[in-house]
Write a structure and sequence with these properties.
The structure is a single chain. The chain is an alpha/beta fold. It folds into 2 domains: 3-114 and 250-311, D-Maltodextrin-Binding Protein, domain 2, CATH 3.40.190.10; 116-248, D-Maltodextrin-Binding Protein, domain 2, CATH 3.40.190.10. It has 12 helices and 10 strands. The protein has helices spanning 3-17, 40-54, 70-76, 87-95, 147-155, 173-181, 197-205, 215-224, 235-238, 261-272, 275-278, 303-311, and strands spanning 27-32, 58-63, 82-86, 107-121, 137-139, 167-169, 187-193, 209-210, 228-233, 244-255. Strands 1, 2, 3, 4, 5, 6, 7, 8, 9 and 10 form a 10-stranded mixed sheet that branches. The chain is elongated, with a radius of gyration of 22 Å.
């Protein structure tokens, strides 16, 4: 028999033995994370290993990148297949807003953990509500850190107090908590995933008090900034008297709209059907439930992901 015919028949037989997913065999894909030391890289590594294990025909690896701001650009230019980023950066990239100089073709396949703004204080500071921050010394987190734009978003719906009315000191979250315990500031800001190590440290020696945002103000914030979300920190996390309503920003998984619908479906299914396994890579994922996956704001959800979420009854 002709050698080329034999090769064709062998190849055809092999393809029949490979489970059909609509995915080309041995396709290599990448996921953009961030620098080592944060949550993005271990979470991205977990996603890559889960996709490789549960999606036949795809081998995925995690890549170190510039992080949340760079990943939408890498996805939009085809340099990586999936990127992890804050919802605000996805929102800005999709619309071509600063810090981006053009629009990038990104869609979400789901949401992950949220980074929340902890506005914390302790007894005896005189701070109980957001307006009480006026004129107070505040540990605002590191200069250029995520807590600064987040507190400015909160204050934008409280006309009685502006950021300029605060007396901020720009220190690490840990140093800010130390300053709060020592009485050198009256409140501290920590923009981080729950549980935040610095706030856990405070809960060991003091009763943690959240400076909460009212439901009315939270509605104003999410209407004004569609990438911010209402989040709840369970009382059990920091041993507070009650659950705390706080402002957050979700971390999203973004892909190009050009990604094949079947591939997007299989990847979404693999990730969100194995959240328990993903949580073993970083503690921030432990608080993520399947229902949280559709908490996508600011960008459209990819049709492949929509198909999976419809099957789970999360989208009608």
């Amino acid at each position: 028999m002709n050698r080329s015919i034999i090769k064709y028949l062998v190849g055809a037989a092999f393809l029949l033995m490979v489970p059909f997913t609509g995915i080309a065999h041995s396709q290599h894909m990448t996921i953009g994370t961030a620098s080592l030391g944060g949550a993005y890289y271990p979470v991205g590594t977990g996603i890559a290993e889960i996709v490789t294990k549960f999606v036949p025909g795809i081998k995925m690896t995690a890549e170190v990148t510039g992080g949340s701001t760079e990943n939408p650009r890498l996805v939009g230019t085809g340099q990586t297949d999936i990127g992890i980023c804050n919802a605000n950066h996805a929102f800005e990239a999709y619309r071509g807003l600063a810090p981006f100089t053009k629009k990038y073709d990104v869609m979400a396949i789901g949401a992950l953990h949220g980074s929340v703004l902890h506005i914390v204080t302790i007894d005896g500071t005189g701070v109980k509500s957001v307006p009480d921050l006026k004129g107070k010394k505040i540990a605002a987190g590191p200069m250029g850190g995520g807590s600064i734009p987040m507190i400015k978003a909160v204050l934008s719906v409280y006309p009685e107090v502006k950021f300029e009315d605060l007396k901020p000191s720009y220190v690490s979250y840990s140093d800010g908590i130390t300053a709060l315990k020592d009485g050198n500031v009256q409140a501290a800001l920590v923009g981080a995933a729950v549980p935040a190590a610095a706030v856990m440290e405070l809960s060991i020696s003091h009763k943690v008090r959240f400076v909460e945002i009212s439901e009315e103000k939270m509605t104003e914030i999410t209407k004004k900034f569609p990438y911010h979300t209402r989040e709840v920190v369970p009382a059990s996390v920091y041993k507070t008297d009650k659950d705390a309503v706080v402002m957050g920003v979700r971390n999203l998984l973004v892909v190009s709209s050009k990604m094949d619908e079947k591939i997007a479906y299989e990847i979404t299914k693999a990730i969100y059907s194995n959240l328990d396994k993903l949580a073993t890579y970083h503690a921030s994922v432990k608080h993520v439930a399947l229902k949280d996956a559709v908490q996508v704001t600011g960008v459209p959800i990819h049709p492949g992901a929509i198909k999976f979420f419809k099957e789970k009854g999360l989208i009608r």
